[in-house]
């Protein structure tokens, strides 16, 4: 061949594993068109179609699967060798992409990331706040943050914060003609502002006391954003179930009233998680150690690193 194809083979392996041109492009911080051109050039050089493309999917051909299987051990060794060199540097470098639910991203992860990059000038962190159950490997993320019950089994997890507290709130005008609920079962008689996640499911109103999941009342208002739910509750549209940080100002100003607080509405603690694999960058290792040393670690039934 007229040129070294090793970089192109590395790109091919990334696309084939993720089944996505976009994920491979995101992982390398380049355009999707550049990834597409690289694959096209590689296929022209080897004279074999390696990937089948449709408007909705990317799938390795039989030849592509065979090539991927032969490439992966060698590429892993190359990445490990480069990582050993990386460990000789005084400080980590590169970009970390982290996916997290919006409340965790806003009220916890943003602060951790800001302190970490101040300590490591050669590292950048990109935080994507997302309510969807994202596949971090497929979508090119280095790590994600999820609550314990949502963690995948093949992930290494490090606790980074306390259990997350939620609040059930309504406006004084709403309660002026409706009784205050005394237990979660009373919610069936109230107008409850529901939140719909990107996948289509409605948010569950969980309560830690007695491990209760409430049957809420009729959903006359459905939103896809916590702040919209707060604004609707302030306007008297019904009860909202949101992270307590979203309503601190409104509660202090008397615009909202908190109910069912003794039922401790909330969910488990947040965990930083990443794929259990041999290769991990020096930047990721440093961030994991930073999170581990910052957060209070407690026993868990989950598999922690």
Give a quick rundown of the structure.
The chain has 305 residues and is α/β, with parallel strands linked by helices. The chain is 36% helix and 19% strand.
Q: What is the makeup of the main sheet?
A: 5 strands, mixed
CATH topology of the largest domain: D-Maltodextrin-Binding Protein, domain 2
CATH superfamily of the largest domain: Periplasmic binding protein-like II
Name of the level-1 CATH class of the largest domain: Alpha Beta
Uncertain runs are 296-305
Q: Helix and strand succession? A: HHHEEHEHEEEEHEEEEHEHEEH
Q: Provide the helix percentage.
A: 25-40%
* Shape, per Cα inertia axes: elongated
CATH-level-2 architecture of the largest domain: 3-Layer(aba) Sandwich
Strand content: 15-25%
Number of strands: 14
């Amino acid at each position: 061949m007229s040129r070294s194809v090793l970089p192109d083979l590395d790109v091919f392996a990334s696309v084939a594993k993720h089944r996505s041109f976009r994920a491979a492009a995101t992982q390398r911080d380049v355009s999707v068109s550049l990834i597409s051109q690289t694959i096209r050039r590689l296929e022209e050089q080897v004279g074999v179609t390696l990937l089948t493309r449709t408007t909705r999917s990317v799938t390795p051909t039989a030849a592509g699967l065979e090539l991927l299987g032969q490439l992966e051990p060698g590429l892993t060794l190359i990445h490990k060798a480069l990582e050993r060199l990386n460990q000789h540097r005084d400080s980590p470098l590169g970009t970390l992409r982290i996916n997290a639910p919006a409340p965790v991203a806003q009220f916890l992860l943003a602060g951790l990331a800001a302190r970490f990059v101040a300590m490591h000038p050669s590292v950048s962190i990109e935080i994507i706040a997302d309510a969807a159950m994202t596949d971090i490997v497929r979508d090119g993320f280095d790590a994600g943050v999820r609550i314990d019950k949502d963690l995948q089994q093949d992930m290494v997890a490090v606790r980074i914060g306390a259990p997350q507290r939620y609040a059930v709130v309504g406006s004084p005008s709403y309660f002026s003609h409706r009784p205050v609920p005394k237990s979660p079962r009373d919610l069936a008689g109230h107008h409850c502002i529901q939140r719909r996640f990107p996948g289509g499911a409605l948010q569950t109103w969980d309560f830690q006391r007695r491990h209760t999941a409430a049957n809420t009342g009729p959903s006359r208002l459905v939103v896809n954003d916590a702040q919209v739910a707060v604004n609707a509750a302030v306007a008297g549209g019904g009860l909202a179930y949101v992270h307590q940080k979203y309503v601190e100002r409104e509660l202090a100003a008397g615009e909202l009233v908190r109910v069912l607080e003794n039922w401790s509405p909330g969910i488990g603690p947040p965990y930083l998680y990443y794929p259990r694999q041999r290769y991990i960058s020096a930047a990721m290792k440093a961030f994991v150690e930073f999170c581990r040393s910052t957060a209070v670690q407690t026993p868990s039934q989950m598999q922690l690193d």
